[in-house]
Amino acid sequence: MGIEDFGGGQTAQSDVLVVTTNDVPGYHVQQVIGEVFGLTVRSRHLGSQIGAGLKSLVGGELKGLTKTLVETRNQAMERLVEQARSRGANAVLMMRFDVTEAADVGTEVCAYGTAVVIAPKG
Question: PANTHER family from the xrefs (predicted)?
């Protein structure tokens, strides 16, 4: 597995900027659209659970689970961007992730933030 299997985030081609900050340097907010989110729920795979249990006996990173979580977060982020774009936003401010257990059968990952329209400062 390469480093790209363990990371995420936007590509340079994205038309919706997503940041974890309250503002974007050099830009001002023209319009606040409101909260947007992208949600996905992943079930646990029995094989990965067994492998994780065995790995926990000796210690170390659970690479299969790490890769799955990265894929899950990226999917939630893609859905966040789709929702922001469909509502007319070109940016999402204060993006965060929330991860919770979903009824003991999976993991819920939610990417959320504030959809806005930004423009360069004149």
Answer: UPF0145 PROTEIN SCO3412, UPF0145 PROTEIN YBJQ
* Burial class, 70, CB count within 10 angstroms (exposed 0-12 / middle 13-18 / buried 19+): middle
Provide the whole-model pTM.
0.80
Give the whole-angstrom CA distance, residue 76 versus residue 65.
16
Reference 19, options 121, 87, 117, 113; nearest CA is 113
The answer to whether position 79 is within a domain reads: yes
Q: How far apart are CA 96 and CA 114, in angstroms?
A: 10
- Look up the domain containing 94 and give its range: 13-120
Residue 4 falls inside a structural domain:
no
Q: What is the pLDDT along the chain (122 residues), one digit of tens a residue?
A: 565 666 667 766 789 999 999 999 999 999 999 999 999 988 865 555 555 555 566 677 777 777 888 888 999 999 999 999 999 999 999 999 999 887 777 888 999 999 999 999 98
